[in-house]
Amino acid sequence: MRLHRHIIWEWWDRFWFAPGSPRNLAATRIVIAVHALWIVLSRDYAGISGLPADLWSGVTALDRVRYAIVPGHPMVERALTVVAVVALLAVACGYATRISCFVAALLLYHLAPFETILWTTSPYERGLEIATLSLVVLSVAPCADVWSVTARYQRQQDASWEYNWPLLLIQLFVAQIYVFSGWSKLFRVGWSWVSAENLRHWLLLFNQEDQIAVYRGFGTWLAGHPALCLLIAIGSLTLDLTFIVVLVWKRARKIYVPLAAAFHVGIFFSMNIAFLNLPQLLVFLDWDWLPAFLSKGLRHGASRTSAER
Amino acid sequence: MVTDVVALLCFAGFVIGALLLCGRRPPGLATWQRKTRVSLFLVYTLGASFGAGLAQHDIWPFVAWPLVAARLPATVTEPRVVAIDARGAEHDIDYRAWWPLSFDELTGWMNQDFTGLPQATQDRVARWLVAKADSARIVARRGEAVGHYGRFLGPFAAPLFLLHPKIWSDSTRVPSEQFVGLRFYQESWNLETHAAGSSAVRRRLVYQFPAAP
Known about the structure:
The structure holds 2 protein chains of 2 kinds.
Chain A: H1 2-16, H2 22-40, H3 45-49, H4 61-67, H5 74-93, H6 97-111, H7 129-139, H8 161-188, H9 196-208, H10 217-223, H11 226-242, H12 253-271, H13 289-308
Chain B: H1 2-22, H2 31-55, E1 75-85, E2 90-92, H3 103-112, H4 119-141, E3 179-190, H5 191-195, E4 202-209
Helix pairs in contact in B: 1-2
Protein backbone atom coordinates (compact mmCIF):
# COMPACT_ATOMS: atom_id res chain seq x y z
CA MET A 1 0.00 0.00 0.00
CA ARG A 2 2.79 2.35 0.98
CA LEU A 3 4.62 1.37 -2.21
CA HIS A 4 1.54 2.16 -4.32
CA ARG A 5 1.22 5.54 -2.65
CA HIS A 6 4.86 6.18 -3.33
CA ILE A 7 4.50 5.27 -7.01
CA ILE A 8 1.41 7.45 -7.44
CA TRP A 9 3.07 10.41 -5.72
CA GLU A 10 6.19 9.96 -7.85
CA TRP A 11 4.13 9.93 -11.02
CA TRP A 12 2.13 12.95 -9.82
CA ASP A 13 5.33 14.80 -8.98
CA ARG A 14 6.93 13.94 -12.33
CA PHE A 15 3.82 14.96 -14.27
CA TRP A 16 2.85 18.25 -12.62
CA PHE A 17 6.13 19.40 -11.12
CA ALA A 18 8.67 18.69 -13.84
CA PRO A 19 10.76 21.74 -14.80
CA GLY A 20 8.82 23.96 -17.19
CA SER A 21 9.71 26.86 -19.44
CA PRO A 22 8.87 30.42 -18.34
CA ARG A 23 8.32 31.31 -22.01
CA ASN A 24 5.61 28.70 -22.52
CA LEU A 25 3.73 29.95 -19.48
CA ALA A 26 4.15 33.58 -20.57
CA ALA A 27 2.93 32.73 -24.08
CA THR A 28 -0.11 31.01 -22.58
CA ARG A 29 -0.82 34.16 -20.54
CA ILE A 30 -0.75 36.24 -23.72
CA VAL A 31 -2.86 33.77 -25.72
CA ILE A 32 -5.52 33.57 -23.01
CA ALA A 33 -5.67 37.36 -22.51
CA VAL A 34 -5.73 38.31 -26.21
CA HIS A 35 -8.36 35.65 -26.94
CA ALA A 36 -10.58 36.89 -24.09
CA LEU A 37 -10.16 40.48 -25.33
CA TRP A 38 -11.22 39.34 -28.79
CA ILE A 39 -14.47 37.93 -27.38
CA VAL A 40 -15.22 40.77 -24.94
CA LEU A 41 -14.66 43.46 -27.57
CA SER A 42 -16.98 41.65 -29.98
CA ARG A 43 -19.98 41.52 -27.63
CA ASP A 44 -22.11 43.98 -25.67
CA TYR A 45 -22.81 42.53 -22.23
CA ALA A 46 -23.87 45.94 -20.89
CA GLY A 47 -26.48 46.25 -23.64
CA ILE A 48 -28.11 42.99 -22.49
CA SER A 49 -28.29 44.35 -18.96
CA GLY A 50 -30.35 47.23 -20.36
CA LEU A 51 -32.91 45.06 -22.19
CA PRO A 52 -36.60 45.47 -21.18
CA ALA A 53 -37.50 43.85 -17.87
CA ASP A 54 -39.97 41.51 -19.61
CA LEU A 55 -37.10 39.67 -21.26
CA TRP A 56 -35.53 39.07 -17.85
CA SER A 57 -38.72 37.54 -16.44
CA GLY A 58 -37.42 33.97 -16.70
CA VAL A 59 -34.16 34.67 -14.88
CA THR A 60 -34.51 33.49 -11.28
CA ALA A 61 -33.10 35.28 -8.25
CA LEU A 62 -30.66 32.39 -7.76
CA ASP A 63 -29.37 32.76 -11.33
CA ARG A 64 -28.71 36.44 -10.64
CA VAL A 65 -26.98 35.73 -7.33
CA ARG A 66 -24.83 33.05 -8.94
CA TYR A 67 -23.27 35.56 -11.32
CA ALA A 68 -23.82 38.72 -9.24
CA ILE A 69 -26.07 40.10 -11.98
CA VAL A 70 -28.48 42.97 -11.34
CA PRO A 71 -30.32 43.69 -14.59
CA GLY A 72 -31.21 47.22 -15.64
CA HIS A 73 -27.82 48.80 -14.93
CA PRO A 74 -26.11 49.04 -18.33
CA MET A 75 -23.84 51.90 -17.24
CA VAL A 76 -22.46 49.85 -14.36
CA GLU A 77 -21.91 46.88 -16.67
CA ARG A 78 -20.26 49.17 -19.24
CA ALA A 79 -17.86 50.40 -16.55
CA LEU A 80 -17.15 46.79 -15.49
CA THR A 81 -16.51 45.86 -19.13
CA VAL A 82 -13.98 48.68 -19.38
CA VAL A 83 -12.27 47.43 -16.21
CA ALA A 84 -12.23 43.90 -17.67
CA VAL A 85 -10.63 45.17 -20.88
CA VAL A 86 -7.99 47.13 -18.94
CA ALA A 87 -7.29 44.10 -16.74
CA LEU A 88 -6.96 41.83 -19.79
CA LEU A 89 -4.58 44.32 -21.44
CA ALA A 90 -2.52 44.28 -18.24
CA VAL A 91 -2.51 40.47 -18.30
CA ALA A 92 -1.37 40.46 -21.93
CA CYS A 93 1.44 42.89 -21.09
CA GLY A 94 2.33 40.98 -17.94
CA TYR A 95 1.66 43.91 -15.66
CA ALA A 96 0.69 43.16 -12.03
CA THR A 97 -0.52 39.74 -13.13
CA ARG A 98 -1.44 38.55 -9.66
CA ILE A 99 -4.12 41.23 -9.44
CA SER A 100 -4.91 41.78 -13.12
CA CYS A 101 -5.49 38.04 -13.79
CA PHE A 102 -7.67 37.72 -10.72
CA VAL A 103 -9.76 40.81 -11.51
CA ALA A 104 -10.14 39.75 -15.16
CA ALA A 105 -11.23 36.23 -14.11
CA LEU A 106 -13.89 37.50 -11.72
CA LEU A 107 -15.19 40.03 -14.24
CA LEU A 108 -15.37 37.44 -17.03
CA TYR A 109 -17.25 35.14 -14.64
CA HIS A 110 -19.72 37.99 -14.12
CA LEU A 111 -19.93 39.31 -17.70
CA ALA A 112 -19.90 36.15 -19.86
CA PRO A 113 -23.29 34.83 -18.65
CA PHE A 114 -25.02 37.99 -19.90
CA GLU A 115 -24.85 36.54 -23.39
CA THR A 116 -27.19 33.63 -22.59
CA ILE A 117 -28.68 34.32 -19.17
CA LEU A 118 -32.16 35.13 -20.53
CA TRP A 119 -32.72 31.46 -21.28
CA THR A 120 -29.77 29.48 -19.91
CA THR A 121 -27.28 30.01 -17.12
CA SER A 122 -24.53 28.19 -18.98
CA PRO A 123 -22.78 30.41 -21.54
CA TYR A 124 -20.76 27.50 -22.87
CA GLU A 125 -19.60 27.67 -26.52
CA ARG A 126 -19.54 31.47 -26.17
CA GLY A 127 -15.77 31.51 -25.80
CA LEU A 128 -14.98 32.61 -22.24
CA GLU A 129 -15.13 29.41 -20.18
CA ILE A 130 -11.47 28.43 -20.59
CA ALA A 131 -10.31 32.03 -20.09
CA THR A 132 -12.24 32.37 -16.83
CA LEU A 133 -10.64 29.25 -15.37
CA SER A 134 -7.20 29.92 -16.81
CA LEU A 135 -7.00 33.47 -15.48
CA VAL A 136 -7.62 32.20 -11.95
CA VAL A 137 -4.74 29.74 -12.43
CA LEU A 138 -2.49 32.42 -13.95
CA SER A 139 -3.17 34.71 -10.99
CA VAL A 140 -1.23 32.32 -8.74
CA ALA A 141 1.50 31.54 -11.25
CA PRO A 142 4.75 33.38 -12.07
CA CYS A 143 3.47 33.98 -15.60
CA ALA A 144 5.16 37.35 -16.16
CA ASP A 145 8.79 36.37 -15.53
CA VAL A 146 9.50 36.76 -19.25
CA TRP A 147 7.77 38.54 -22.13
CA SER A 148 6.25 41.17 -19.91
CA VAL A 149 6.70 44.85 -19.17
CA THR A 150 8.10 43.90 -15.75
CA ALA A 151 10.34 41.06 -16.95
CA ARG A 152 13.60 43.03 -16.69
CA TYR A 153 13.07 43.38 -12.95
CA GLN A 154 12.69 39.63 -12.51
CA ARG A 155 15.63 37.32 -11.99
CA GLN A 156 14.26 33.83 -12.27
CA GLN A 157 14.13 32.71 -15.89
CA ASP A 158 15.43 29.16 -15.67
CA ALA A 159 13.11 26.21 -16.03
CA SER A 160 11.21 25.53 -12.84
CA TRP A 161 8.34 23.36 -11.63
CA GLU A 162 6.50 26.60 -10.78
CA TYR A 163 6.11 27.25 -14.53
CA ASN A 164 4.97 23.75 -15.37
CA TRP A 165 1.88 22.95 -13.32
CA PRO A 166 -0.13 26.08 -14.25
CA LEU A 167 0.63 25.55 -17.94
CA LEU A 168 -0.35 21.87 -17.73
CA LEU A 169 -3.58 22.73 -15.93
CA ILE A 170 -4.56 25.26 -18.62
CA GLN A 171 -3.64 22.74 -21.31
CA LEU A 172 -5.84 20.24 -19.51
CA PHE A 173 -8.78 22.69 -19.60
CA VAL A 174 -8.38 22.94 -23.38
CA ALA A 175 -7.93 19.17 -23.79
CA GLN A 176 -11.09 18.58 -21.75
CA ILE A 177 -13.10 20.28 -24.51
CA TYR A 178 -12.28 17.32 -26.75
CA VAL A 179 -12.44 14.57 -24.15
CA PHE A 180 -15.80 15.69 -22.77
CA SER A 181 -17.14 16.37 -26.25
CA GLY A 182 -16.35 12.77 -27.17
CA TRP A 183 -17.58 11.43 -23.84
CA SER A 184 -20.85 13.40 -24.13
CA LYS A 185 -21.62 11.68 -27.45
CA LEU A 186 -21.19 8.26 -25.86
CA PHE A 187 -22.91 9.25 -22.60
CA ARG A 188 -25.96 10.84 -24.24
CA VAL A 189 -26.32 8.74 -27.40
CA GLY A 190 -24.01 5.74 -27.23
CA TRP A 191 -21.97 4.16 -30.00
CA SER A 192 -24.87 4.71 -32.41
CA TRP A 193 -23.72 8.35 -32.62
CA VAL A 194 -21.03 7.02 -34.92
CA SER A 195 -23.06 6.50 -38.06
CA ALA A 196 -23.01 7.93 -41.54
CA GLU A 197 -26.71 8.75 -41.23
CA ASN A 198 -26.32 10.79 -38.04
CA LEU A 199 -23.43 12.85 -39.35
CA ARG A 200 -25.22 13.31 -42.67
CA HIS A 201 -28.27 14.66 -40.83
CA TRP A 202 -26.14 17.15 -38.87
CA LEU A 203 -24.49 18.31 -42.08
CA LEU A 204 -27.83 18.60 -43.86
CA LEU A 205 -29.40 20.57 -41.00
CA PHE A 206 -26.67 23.22 -40.92
CA ASN A 207 -26.72 23.51 -44.71
CA GLN A 208 -30.49 23.45 -45.28
CA GLU A 209 -31.43 25.89 -42.49
CA ASP A 210 -31.32 29.19 -44.42
CA GLN A 211 -31.03 31.18 -41.19
CA ILE A 212 -27.67 29.51 -40.51
CA ALA A 213 -26.19 28.43 -43.83
CA VAL A 214 -23.53 30.88 -44.95
CA TYR A 215 -21.39 28.22 -46.61
CA ARG A 216 -23.33 25.43 -48.35
CA GLY A 217 -21.14 23.75 -50.94
CA PHE A 218 -18.68 21.74 -48.83
CA GLY A 219 -21.18 20.45 -46.26
CA THR A 220 -23.74 19.46 -48.87
CA TRP A 221 -21.03 17.67 -50.87
CA LEU A 222 -19.87 15.77 -47.76
CA ALA A 223 -23.46 14.83 -46.88
CA GLY A 224 -23.78 13.27 -50.31
CA HIS A 225 -20.98 10.78 -49.57
CA PRO A 226 -22.08 8.35 -46.81
CA ALA A 227 -18.65 6.67 -46.64
CA LEU A 228 -17.02 10.04 -45.97
CA CYS A 229 -19.67 10.85 -43.36
CA LEU A 230 -18.90 7.61 -41.53
CA LEU A 231 -15.18 8.27 -41.76
CA ILE A 232 -15.63 11.78 -40.32
CA ALA A 233 -17.83 10.46 -37.49
CA ILE A 234 -15.21 7.83 -36.57
CA GLY A 235 -12.37 10.31 -36.98
CA SER A 236 -13.95 13.07 -34.91
CA LEU A 237 -14.86 10.74 -32.03
CA THR A 238 -11.36 9.24 -32.09
CA LEU A 239 -9.79 12.70 -32.10
CA ASP A 240 -12.03 13.80 -29.22
CA LEU A 241 -11.36 10.80 -27.01
CA THR A 242 -7.62 10.58 -27.61
CA PHE A 243 -6.69 14.27 -27.75
CA ILE A 244 -5.76 14.19 -24.07
CA VAL A 245 -2.60 12.20 -24.87
CA VAL A 246 -0.99 15.53 -25.83
CA LEU A 247 -0.60 16.20 -22.12
CA VAL A 248 1.65 13.23 -21.50
CA TRP A 249 3.17 12.73 -24.93
CA LYS A 250 4.54 16.01 -26.26
CA ARG A 251 5.48 14.64 -29.67
CA ALA A 252 1.82 13.87 -30.30
CA ARG A 253 1.13 17.60 -30.28
CA LYS A 254 2.75 17.91 -33.71
CA ILE A 255 -0.03 15.72 -35.09
CA TYR A 256 -2.98 16.42 -32.81
CA VAL A 257 -2.86 20.22 -32.66
CA PRO A 258 -2.77 20.85 -36.45
CA LEU A 259 -5.32 18.05 -36.89
CA ALA A 260 -7.68 19.67 -34.36
CA ALA A 261 -7.22 23.07 -36.03
CA ALA A 262 -7.97 21.57 -39.46
CA PHE A 263 -10.97 19.78 -37.95
CA HIS A 264 -12.42 23.12 -36.72
CA VAL A 265 -11.77 24.82 -40.05
CA GLY A 266 -13.59 21.93 -41.72
CA ILE A 267 -16.53 22.29 -39.32
CA PHE A 268 -16.62 26.04 -39.99
CA PHE A 269 -17.09 25.57 -43.72
CA SER A 270 -19.18 22.39 -43.65
CA MET A 271 -21.46 23.05 -40.67
CA ASN A 272 -21.32 26.84 -40.28
CA ILE A 273 -20.12 26.50 -36.70
CA ALA A 274 -17.39 28.83 -35.44
CA PHE A 275 -15.49 27.14 -32.62
CA LEU A 276 -14.40 30.23 -30.69
CA ASN A 277 -11.78 28.40 -28.60
CA LEU A 278 -9.71 27.50 -31.65
CA PRO A 279 -6.94 30.11 -30.95
CA GLN A 280 -6.44 28.55 -27.52
CA LEU A 281 -4.78 25.57 -29.20
CA LEU A 282 -1.72 27.84 -29.26
CA VAL A 283 -1.14 26.97 -25.59
CA PHE A 284 0.21 23.60 -26.76
CA LEU A 285 3.03 25.13 -28.82
CA ASP A 286 6.58 25.02 -27.52
CA TRP A 287 7.46 28.73 -27.51
CA ASP A 288 11.11 28.22 -26.58
CA TRP A 289 12.01 28.28 -30.28
CA LEU A 290 10.90 31.88 -30.65
CA PRO A 291 13.82 33.76 -28.99
CA ALA A 292 16.35 31.56 -30.82
CA PHE A 293 14.52 32.10 -34.10
CA LEU A 294 14.34 35.87 -33.58
CA SER A 295 17.98 36.25 -32.56
CA LYS A 296 19.03 34.08 -35.52
CA GLY A 297 16.94 36.29 -37.79
CA LEU A 298 18.45 39.44 -36.30
CA ARG A 299 22.01 38.05 -36.64
CA HIS A 300 21.29 37.07 -40.23
CA GLY A 301 19.89 40.55 -40.93
CA ALA A 302 22.89 42.26 -39.28
CA SER A 303 25.43 40.14 -41.19
CA ARG A 304 23.64 40.89 -44.48
CA THR A 305 23.68 44.63 -43.72
CA SER A 306 27.40 44.61 -42.87
CA ALA A 307 28.16 42.55 -46.01
CA GLU A 308 26.25 45.05 -48.17
CA ARG A 309 28.32 47.87 -46.66
CA MET B 1 -31.65 25.26 -8.59
CA VAL B 2 -29.36 22.58 -7.14
CA THR B 3 -27.08 22.97 -10.17
CA ASP B 4 -26.90 26.73 -9.55
CA VAL B 5 -25.84 26.24 -5.93
CA VAL B 6 -23.34 23.49 -6.76
CA ALA B 7 -21.88 25.57 -9.60
CA LEU B 8 -21.52 28.64 -7.42
CA LEU B 9 -19.87 26.64 -4.62
CA CYS B 10 -17.51 24.89 -7.06
CA PHE B 11 -16.32 28.17 -8.56
CA ALA B 12 -16.09 29.81 -5.14
CA GLY B 13 -13.99 26.88 -3.90
CA PHE B 14 -11.76 27.18 -6.96
CA VAL B 15 -11.22 30.91 -6.37
CA ILE B 16 -10.65 30.48 -2.62
CA GLY B 17 -8.16 27.70 -3.36
CA ALA B 18 -6.27 30.06 -5.65
CA LEU B 19 -6.36 32.83 -3.04
CA LEU B 20 -4.92 30.47 -0.43
CA LEU B 21 -2.15 29.52 -2.84
CA CYS B 22 -1.12 33.07 -3.57
CA GLY B 23 -1.48 34.27 0.00
CA ARG B 24 1.57 35.30 2.04
CA ARG B 25 3.98 32.37 2.19
CA PRO B 26 5.23 31.56 5.66
CA PRO B 27 9.01 32.08 5.79
CA GLY B 28 10.95 28.87 5.38
CA LEU B 29 8.16 27.03 3.55
CA ALA B 30 9.86 23.99 2.04
CA THR B 31 9.41 23.08 -1.62
CA TRP B 32 7.57 19.89 -0.72
CA GLN B 33 5.14 21.89 1.43
CA ARG B 34 4.52 24.30 -1.41
CA LYS B 35 4.00 21.37 -3.78
CA THR B 36 1.54 19.83 -1.36
CA ARG B 37 -0.51 23.04 -1.35
CA VAL B 38 -0.46 23.19 -5.14
CA SER B 39 -1.43 19.51 -5.27
CA LEU B 40 -4.49 20.13 -3.11
CA PHE B 41 -5.55 22.91 -5.48
CA LEU B 42 -4.96 20.61 -8.46
CA VAL B 43 -6.97 17.76 -6.93
CA TYR B 44 -9.86 20.14 -6.25
CA THR B 45 -9.76 21.55 -9.79
CA LEU B 46 -9.54 18.09 -11.35
CA GLY B 47 -12.49 16.98 -9.23
CA ALA B 48 -14.66 19.93 -10.28
CA SER B 49 -13.79 19.82 -13.98
CA PHE B 50 -13.93 16.04 -14.42
CA GLY B 51 -17.03 15.92 -12.23
CA ALA B 52 -18.84 18.31 -14.59
CA GLY B 53 -17.57 16.57 -17.72
CA LEU B 54 -18.08 12.94 -16.75
CA ALA B 55 -21.48 13.53 -15.13
CA GLN B 56 -22.44 15.77 -18.10
CA HIS B 57 -23.71 18.49 -15.80
CA ASP B 58 -22.69 22.01 -16.71
CA ILE B 59 -21.48 23.95 -13.71
CA TRP B 60 -20.07 26.85 -15.73
CA PRO B 61 -17.21 27.69 -16.05
CA PHE B 62 -16.63 23.96 -15.50
CA VAL B 63 -18.29 22.78 -18.69
CA ALA B 64 -19.57 19.41 -19.97
CA TRP B 65 -18.98 20.28 -23.67
CA PRO B 66 -21.88 18.34 -25.25
CA LEU B 67 -21.00 19.45 -28.80
CA VAL B 68 -23.44 17.96 -31.37
CA ALA B 69 -23.98 15.19 -28.81
CA ALA B 70 -27.34 13.99 -30.08
CA ARG B 71 -28.74 11.67 -32.68
CA LEU B 72 -30.53 13.89 -35.13
CA PRO B 73 -33.83 12.57 -36.54
CA ALA B 74 -34.67 12.99 -40.21
CA THR B 75 -37.40 15.51 -39.40
CA VAL B 76 -36.20 18.63 -37.63
CA THR B 77 -37.95 21.68 -36.16
CA GLU B 78 -36.41 25.13 -36.05
CA PRO B 79 -37.82 28.51 -34.94
CA ARG B 80 -38.28 31.48 -37.26
CA VAL B 81 -39.26 35.07 -36.46
CA VAL B 82 -40.53 37.14 -39.39
CA ALA B 83 -41.57 40.77 -39.60
CA ILE B 84 -44.84 41.89 -41.17
CA ASP B 85 -44.95 45.11 -43.16
CA ALA B 86 -47.85 47.54 -43.55
CA ARG B 87 -49.15 45.56 -46.56
CA GLY B 88 -49.17 42.33 -44.58
CA ALA B 89 -46.16 40.79 -46.36
CA GLU B 90 -43.71 38.70 -44.33
CA HIS B 91 -39.96 39.42 -44.30
CA ASP B 92 -36.99 37.58 -42.86
CA ILE B 93 -34.96 39.70 -40.46
CA ASP B 94 -31.18 40.05 -40.55
CA TYR B 95 -29.70 38.39 -37.43
CA ARG B 96 -27.73 41.56 -36.63
CA ALA B 97 -30.98 43.48 -36.08
CA TRP B 98 -31.34 41.92 -32.62
CA TRP B 99 -28.02 43.32 -31.31
CA PRO B 100 -27.02 43.15 -28.46
CA LEU B 101 -29.08 39.94 -28.37
CA SER B 102 -27.87 37.28 -30.74
CA PHE B 103 -30.28 35.41 -32.98
CA ASP B 104 -29.64 32.14 -31.13
CA GLU B 105 -30.24 33.63 -27.69
CA LEU B 106 -33.43 35.35 -28.86
CA THR B 107 -34.91 32.23 -30.46
CA GLY B 108 -33.74 30.12 -27.50
CA TRP B 109 -35.57 32.50 -25.16
CA MET B 110 -38.67 32.61 -27.37
CA ASN B 111 -38.80 28.82 -27.52
CA GLN B 112 -38.37 28.39 -23.80
CA ASP B 113 -39.83 31.41 -22.00
CA PHE B 114 -41.82 33.62 -24.35
CA THR B 115 -44.68 31.20 -24.97
CA GLY B 116 -45.32 30.88 -21.23
CA LEU B 117 -45.67 34.62 -20.67
CA PRO B 118 -49.07 36.33 -20.22
CA GLN B 119 -50.55 37.75 -23.46
CA ALA B 120 -50.00 41.37 -22.40
CA THR B 121 -46.31 40.73 -21.69
CA GLN B 122 -45.89 38.87 -24.98
CA ASP B 123 -47.37 41.84 -26.84
CA ARG B 124 -45.11 44.30 -25.02
CA VAL B 125 -42.06 42.26 -25.97
CA ALA B 126 -43.31 41.87 -29.54
CA ARG B 127 -43.84 45.63 -29.87
CA TRP B 128 -40.25 46.17 -28.72
CA LEU B 129 -38.95 43.54 -31.15
CA VAL B 130 -40.87 45.08 -34.07
CA ALA B 131 -39.44 48.53 -33.25
CA LYS B 132 -35.95 47.04 -33.04
CA ALA B 133 -36.29 45.20 -36.35
CA ASP B 134 -37.70 48.29 -38.05
CA SER B 135 -34.94 50.61 -36.84
CA ALA B 136 -32.39 48.06 -38.14
CA ARG B 137 -34.29 47.96 -41.44
CA ILE B 138 -34.01 51.76 -41.76
CA VAL B 139 -30.26 51.61 -41.06
CA ALA B 140 -29.82 48.79 -43.61
CA ARG B 141 -31.82 50.72 -46.22
CA ARG B 142 -29.31 53.56 -45.87
CA GLY B 143 -26.58 51.06 -46.72
CA GLU B 144 -25.06 51.17 -43.22
CA ALA B 145 -24.00 48.20 -41.11
CA VAL B 146 -26.73 46.66 -38.97
CA GLY B 147 -25.91 45.98 -35.31
CA HIS B 148 -22.55 46.72 -33.73
CA TYR B 149 -20.70 43.41 -33.94
CA GLY B 150 -17.67 45.07 -35.52
CA ARG B 151 -17.73 48.31 -33.54
CA PHE B 152 -14.23 47.77 -32.09
CA LEU B 153 -12.64 45.05 -34.19
CA GLY B 154 -14.35 45.55 -37.55
CA PRO B 155 -14.17 42.45 -39.74
CA PHE B 156 -11.94 40.75 -37.13
CA ALA B 157 -14.72 40.65 -34.51
CA ALA B 158 -15.45 37.20 -33.08
CA PRO B 159 -18.29 35.52 -34.99
CA LEU B 160 -21.20 33.91 -33.20
CA PHE B 161 -20.97 30.18 -32.45
CA LEU B 162 -23.49 29.53 -35.23
CA LEU B 163 -22.98 31.56 -38.37
CA HIS B 164 -25.86 33.49 -39.92
CA PRO B 165 -26.11 35.11 -43.35
CA LYS B 166 -26.13 38.92 -43.50
CA ILE B 167 -29.28 39.12 -45.58
CA TRP B 168 -29.42 42.93 -45.37
CA SER B 169 -25.84 43.59 -46.42
CA ASP B 170 -27.19 44.59 -49.82
CA SER B 171 -29.44 47.63 -49.23
CA THR B 172 -31.49 46.92 -52.37
CA ARG B 173 -32.69 43.67 -50.77
CA VAL B 174 -33.88 45.36 -47.59
CA PRO B 175 -37.69 45.71 -47.30
CA SER B 176 -38.87 49.23 -48.09
CA GLU B 177 -42.14 49.12 -46.15
CA GLN B 178 -42.24 49.85 -42.43
CA PHE B 179 -42.56 46.81 -40.13
CA VAL B 180 -45.77 46.82 -38.11
CA GLY B 181 -45.92 43.31 -36.68
CA LEU B 182 -44.21 39.96 -36.32
CA ARG B 183 -44.92 36.25 -36.40
CA PHE B 184 -43.13 33.49 -34.56
CA TYR B 185 -43.18 30.11 -36.30
CA GLN B 186 -41.91 26.62 -35.69
CA GLU B 187 -40.83 25.18 -39.02
CA SER B 188 -40.45 21.45 -39.59
CA TRP B 189 -38.99 19.68 -42.58
CA ASN B 190 -37.53 16.35 -43.53
CA LEU B 191 -33.79 16.57 -44.13
CA GLU B 192 -33.74 13.67 -46.57
CA THR B 193 -36.63 14.79 -48.77
CA HIS B 194 -35.22 18.33 -48.69
CA ALA B 195 -31.86 16.97 -49.87
CA ALA B 196 -33.70 15.16 -52.68
CA GLY B 197 -35.06 18.47 -53.95
CA SER B 198 -38.31 18.96 -52.08
CA SER B 199 -38.79 22.37 -50.49
CA ALA B 200 -41.78 21.32 -48.36
CA VAL B 201 -41.72 22.97 -44.94
CA ARG B 202 -44.53 22.61 -42.39
CA ARG B 203 -45.08 25.87 -40.53
CA ARG B 204 -46.85 26.15 -37.19
CA LEU B 205 -47.76 29.65 -36.08
CA VAL B 206 -46.85 29.98 -32.40
CA TYR B 207 -47.53 33.67 -31.93
CA GLN B 208 -48.56 36.71 -33.94
CA PHE B 209 -48.45 40.42 -33.20
CA PRO B 210 -50.78 42.17 -33.52
CA ALA B 211 -53.19 39.30 -32.90
CA ALA B 212 -55.30 38.30 -35.91
CA PRO B 213 -58.74 39.99 -35.81
